[in-house]
Write a structure and sequence with these properties.
Layout (H helix, E strand, L loop, with lengths): L9 H9 L13 E8 L4 E9 L6 E6 L5 E5 L1 E5 L2 E6 L4 E9 L2 E8 L2 E9 L2
Length: 124
C-alpha cells in the first residue's frame, strides 16, 4: 500500500486529530465487539459482530440476538483503507461499511438480493 506524506502544519494537524477521526484508521481498530440493529422493514434484528485478530488476520462471528442467539461464522474479514468487508456465506450475506469514526461503522448489509443500511457501534 503506497504511503504519501504531506506537511499539514500544526493548526491543521491539531484540527484533524481533535475531530475524533484518525488520519488513517488502524486495522486493529476493528478487533472487538460491535453491535447494531438491522431494520428489514419487518422485524428489527439486533446483531453483534465479534472480531478477533489484527493486521490482516481477522476472524469473526455475527450473532443474531433476536433469532435465538444464532452465532454465524464470518468467512472473510477484509479492510481496505477505511472500508470493511465481511463475507458470511452461511446465510448468503455480506456487509460493506466505512469507519465513520474509530467506534462507528456505517454501511450496508446485503442478503438474498436485498440490501439494508446497518450501522455498527463498537462496545467499550
Amino acid at each position: 500500500m503506497p504511503v504519501v506524506l504531506k506537511r499539514l502544519g500544526v493548526a491543521l494537524a491539531a484540527l484533524v486529530l481533535s475531530s475524533g477521526l484518525a488520519l488513517a484508521q488502524s486495522k486493529s481498530d476493528l478487533a472487538g465487539s460491535w453491535d447494531g440493529t438491522l431494520d428489514t422493514g419487518g422485524p428489527k434484528l439486533r446483531l453483534v459482530l465479534d472480531v478477533k485478530g489484527s493486521a490482516g488476520a481477522y476472524t469473526g462471528t455475527l450473532t443474531s440476538v433476536d433469532q435465538a442467539g444464532a452465532v454465524i461464522p464470518i468467512a472473510t474479514v477484509a479492510i481496505e483503507g477505511d472500508t470493511v468487508r465481511l463475507d458470511v456465506p452461511a446465510v448468503m450475506g455480506k456487509y460493506e461499511g466505512k469507519f465513520a469514526s474509530t467506534t462507528k461503522l456505517t454501511g450496508t448489509w446485503s442478503q438474498l438480493g436485498m440490501s439494508f443500511p446497518l450501522e455498527l457501534t463498537k462496545k467499550p
